[in-house]
Amino acid sequence: MTTATRQEVLGLYRRIFRLARQWQAASGRVEDTAREKQYIRHEARTLFRKNKNLTDTDQIKQCIDECTARIEIGLHYQIPYPRPIHLPPMGLTSLRGRGLRSQEKLRKLSKPVYLKSHDEVS
């Protein structure tokens, strides 16, 4: 990992924890705020620890992009949880191949960047 990439990753880590410290739940309830702050901290620690040994620059860049996207979406929608995508079953297959394997492959390819690691951790 280059020094610039390392600084970017550490900056994102600090940004997430600053965000968690200042987070206010959209409902305004103290219990919801505490639960959401805890979720942000736990999710950040889990994902950063999981990816700490990455050496491939493309994978590192993808993780940085995912982190940035999740921060921006969380701030915009005022929810710390990833926004799920709703696709109807068999809605992505072409007219020729309506097999389950092709459906699973297309779903994986169509997953937004901010949800790439969500299924692995949850």
UniProtKB/TrEMBL annotation:
Which InterPro entries is this protein grouped with?
A: Complex1_LYR_dom (IPR008011), Complex1_LYR_LYRM1 (IPR045294), LYRM1 (IPR040330)
Complex 1 LYR protein domain sequence ranges: 7-69
Q: Which Pfam families match?
A: Complex1_LYR (PF05347)
Provide one Gene Ontology cellular component: mitochondrion
Stored PANTHER family = LYR MOTIF-CONTAINING PROTEIN 1
Similarity field: Belongs to the complex I LYR family.
What protein does this entry describe? LYR motif containing 1
What organism does the UniProt record list as the source?
Answer: Myotis myotis (Greater mouse-eared bat)
